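tool_call: predict_structure(chain=1)
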Amino acid sequence: MKKIMLFVLALCLCFATFGAAFAETAATETPAEEAPKAEMNAEELYQAGVDAVAAEDYGKAMEYFQLAADLGNAKGLRYIGSMYAYGTGVDRDYGKALEYYQRAADQGEASGLFSIGLLYYFGNGVEQDYGKAAESFQKAADLGDASAAVNLAYMYEHGEGVEQDYDLAQKYYLKAVDLGDSYAYAGLGDLYRGGKGVEQDYAKAVEYYTLAADQGVPAGMFGLGECCYEGKGLEKDPGKAAEWYRKALEAGYEPDEEAQAHLKDVLGDGYQQK
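tool_result:
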């Protein structure tokens, strides 16, 4: 099954995830009338930066985040790093992204550690190093970062940068679930469907895939398609399987080569490889 990293997993460090995180934060608060910058504390400056991003005024956002960072706000440092990583309002510069992520991480900001892990995982601005990625994800997960936990679980499941360990994969998928990450449900579904470190249990796999699919996770939808196609955990129904496969693709599922061949067989002309 295709990697479910977030990205954010968004799997490829896309700005959509970065922007959505800002928008979600901004949506929870009503922007107050802007006060003079000199009278604002670090948290107020940071929030002003969030509001500026929501308004797509990235120059102002950078200004506020920098002021917040100058007053020691770790979240401001992390978001400056992200703006450099995604080239948002500035030229993309992974070196500067890493610098700001590291400064945030040095202050105990879990998302800074997670972001460093992504740079090493994908080899953006640094030599690709799964071991260093896993190390950063581990530290971030221990600080309560849900995205780091699900990525670390995936790495343990597949033995990337760490020794393959299904027990630890399950542990971190469950931790990610507890922290509110819906992608982890799909990972747990994979473990139970494949009998990886647990007794094979298709009904439980379907349960987890359904939890993921209900929250819009493409990998959960694809997993349900597999179960329908194979008749394991669900009644064998190629038509229903094709329906789930289409939903997964429409939601952004990116199949690997093996899955592409399978989808072409099942969907025929209805499958358009991207």
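agent: The chain is about 65% helix and 0% strand. Proceeding to next step.
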